[in-house]
Amino acid sequence: MQSLIWLVVLRALEVHARPYSEASALKGRGIFIPVTSSVVPSVSVSTSTNGAASAQILPTPSAVRPDTIGVVFTSLKTDGLPTVQPLICTSIATPISRLLVTGPVMPIFNKVQADTASSNIFQPIATDSPPSQIGSRPDHPVARLGIKPQTSPLGTNKFYANFFLGSQSSSSWTHPYSLAWSKGGGTSKSWGMSVAHINDNQKVFGPNATANPPQYFINPIGIQSLVLSALELGNSTQLSTDSLTAFSANVNLIPSSGASPAITFPLVQGMGFVTAIYNGGTPVLQSGILFRSVTKSTTSIKPGITKFTIVLEDGKKWLLYAQGSGLDLTVVNNGLVQATSTFKGTVQIAKDPGEAEGLYDAACGAYPTTTELSGNVDGAKGSYTFSFTKGGLQNTTLLMFALPHHVASFSPATQSSVTKVQLTTTTKGKTTAVIADSWILDENLPIGIGFAPWNPATVKDTAFSGSTAGAIRDVAKVEVAQNMSEQSNLNSMYYSGKALAKFAGIIYTLNDLTGDTGLAQAGLKNLKVAFDVFTTNKQQYPLVHETAWGGVVSTASYVTGDSGVDFGNTYYNDHHFHYGYFIYAAAIIGHLDNTWLTANKAWVNTLVRDIANPTTQDPHFPVYRNFDWYHGHSFAHGLYETADGRDEESSSEDTMSAYALKMWGQVTGDANMEARGNLQLAITARSLQSYFLYESNNTIQPANFIGNKVSGILFENKIDHTTYFGANPEYIQGIHMLPLLPPSALTRTANFVKEEWDVYFSNGRAEKVTGGWKGVLYANLALTDPKGSWNFFSQGNFDGSWLDGGASRTWYMAMAAGLGGL
Ligand SMILES: *[C@@H]1O[C@H](CO)[C@@H](O)[C@H](O)[C@H]1NC(C)=O
Ligand SMILES: *[C@@H]1O[C@H](CO)[C@@H](O)[C@H](O)[C@H]1NC(C)=O
Ligand SMILES: *[C@@H]1O[C@H](CO)[C@@H](O)[C@H](O)[C@H]1NC(C)=O
Ligand SMILES: *[C@@H]1O[C@H](CO)[C@@H](O)[C@H](O)[C@H]1NC(C)=O
Ligand SMILES: *[C@@H]1O[C@H](CO)[C@@H](O)[C@H](O)[C@H]1NC(C)=O
């Protein structure tokens, strides 16, 4: 083993790391050094055994990132010593002392971001039409029921989708409230908007309520606590929507076709009141629970505001605030309360859990109309802001409800606006009332995650020992020779993407981790041929840009008439999973081949824009089809009405999609995309650990449910510890594991993985699992027991049937070796 001394002349910083064992393992990697003060724009690098290998860091003003400096090992000499190329630097401010580095420096990474992100990272990826090989058509099988024409493409997976799908009467959850168009149904038989809030003691656990853990819990639906309606509404009433954004929508109840709305409901995720804007009709208030009392307040809260206290027969107290032309209510019967005259203005309702009346009194009169998202990054610090635009009283600060993962990451300033008032949600723990017109949320960004195996807990030398590299190489040689075209040219975007991603991982491992560049290049050639089928749109079901909703979908449902084919890709189901695999594979190809990158950037960016367009400035795609910045994770559910709301099953494929965005942003030099990917990953980790992946100390989900360790399928209204394809433990737990990639260690902590393993897979149970799931379980084991994982994958009698179509033994071995420092 050679011991090299890398001497990087800086000031005010000294880093020591361990010697490395194999120079070849360093190729393509480098050092990435966060510094707190600025850095001299000149770095010389030398080694004690190789003589001086010095290099200048270019002080290019456009390539400045203020808190990092990096060098990357670019090529290997025959003597096994890497040459170095400095990548970035920043301007001179304070003097910096010597940086002494004993190679290799950790964390090892692949490539340093050379460009700087904008002050708001939500900048367009592109604004032009998708590439011409992706055809265009104006129609889509799902009608856009009641959606008023709007300039921006339509979000297909958002919380309000039930308002334009199917019967238009399934619920939408803004949290903590849910709303549903009563549509002449339910106990009230109303034609207005039904509002509900469910308490924890109303949650139903089953099918065996006393089991610990129970399989599922569900919140009752169809409870019409209060229905906001108008005398004008009846069996000719229609529901329309407008102003649909990533966070909000207006829902209108129209007495009859062509009439103007009697009531408009501006819906915004987290809104503190349900607000109804009356347009001069006669307000009607109904209840399926029935009214116990409706009392007008005799004291004035604010000028122009009338307040009523409503107690329902379930004992729950609601407050109603009316602002406008004066509202008086008369009780017609215990299910019906009616205004004594027509009314123009807003009616707001909120549920008082006991101590919230003062807060509601102060916050009434103002309501959010939408949420603007912005964000910035500074090295490993990321921050995003929700700015709520406001209707009603402009001098009143908004009351908005925050989910647990929001409160946990609020900036100090926003933290000071948090109140003690809480209302529970259906599946996300308790919301907390916050009095503020904007929130700032801070995250630590996982900037150290690259293509290489990554472990946040240990600073281990990820350079493989010679024997480890050799064992991986032996397996990779065989796997890289598989027929890539055959495995990837399928009738499914999902399975095709998984296959391409698998081969990309093998080729990356050969090139970057074992140093077998020749083998890697040969494989890369085949992978590009296989990938070309898609970039030329010659796969079995080509993609098409449909302009009815605005997005790129598989033509499979158009051709077959089957809405569920390819997991519903045509219906916007699972796009972030399907396209995430392609984007990840493309990032690796682009990392290895700059010419390919340039030629195919627009095609890959089209997939990125379809799932994660960051701004309304892109006229061809909705903003963030899948990732929900309020929930902190994605929703997979596309254009199908659903009684329990949007859902997502595979939290790990969600993670993969954010990681793919980060890596594609990195290799294409789109610093804003990379930053958004990092931010999305950090938020996803926080949100998943709150709602999907349960360490034993999770206090957010019901205590008796934590023993399941994972959610199973998380809906807006229920969590069901199962899958869409079967109930074997390895399916239910495993669909939250795959694909195993570097960010798996971010979302799935070593402690969590150990706890889950002990519940489901220890004592020989994993050994009994058959097929590809067995490989998934043992790859996941690497997150807590890398040696055990390595032993499984490196065993002499390894059976290829233990790998699913998206997995390679090569990458699984690399991950185990990388995580374990083997
Ligand atoms: C329900 O779960 C409890 C606790 O595990 C168990 O004792 C009981 O037998 C179960 N009931 C049924 C019907 O399975
Ligand atoms: C609609 O309501 C009107 C007025 O209440 C009633 O006369 C009519 O029969 C209803 N029509 C239907 C189809 O129910
Ligand atoms: C807030 O605005 C309302 C309506 O513009 C006005 O009537 C009220 O006096 C203002 N209140 C304060 C405290 O400025
Ligand atoms: C790979 O599979 C494709 C499709 O089945 C086939 O046309 C091609 O000949 C195969 N290539 C090799 C090298 O076997
Ligand atoms: C739960 O326990 C783990 C492991 O000890 C710890 O890292 C984590 O911070 C804890 N989470 C909470 C919410 O306390």
UniProtKB/TrEMBL annotation:
Catalytic activity: Hydrolysis of (1->3)-beta-D-glucosidic linkages in (1->3)-beta-D-glucans
Primary location group: secreted
Signal peptide: 1-17
Domain Glycosyl hydrolase family 81 N-terminal: from-to ranges: 140-456
Keyword Calcium appears in the UniProt entry: no
Enzyme nomenclature, EC number: 3.2.1.39
PROSITE patterns reported in the protein's UniProt record: GH81 (PS52008)
Subcellular location: Secreted, Cell wall
Top-level taxon of the source organism: Eukaryota
Domain Glycosyl hydrolase family 81 C-terminal, chain residue ranges per copy: 467-813
Gene3D superfamilies assigned: glycoside hydrolase family 81 endo-[beta] glucanase, Golgi alpha-mannosidase II, domain 4, Immunoglobulin FC, subunit C
Entry GO CC: cell surface
GO MF annotation: an example: glucan endo-1,3-beta-D-glucosidase activity
Key words of the record: Carbohydrate metabolism, Cell wall, Cell wall biogenesis/degradation, Glycoprotein, Glycosidase, Hydrolase, Polysaccharide degradation, Secreted, Signal
InterPro entries associated with the record: Endo-beta-glucanase, GH81_C, GH81_N
GO biological process: cell wall organization; polysaccharide catabolic process; septum digestion after cytokinesis
PANTHER family found in the cross-reference section: ENDO-1,3(4)-BETA-GLUCANASE 1 (PTHR31983), GLUCAN ENDO-1,3-BETA-D-GLUCOSIDASE 2 (PTHR31983:SF0)
Family in the record: Belongs to the glycosyl hydrolase 81 family.
Name of the protein in question: Glucan endo-1,3-beta-D-glucosidase 1
Lineage of producing organism: Eukaryota, Fungi, Dikarya, Ascomycota, Pezizomycotina
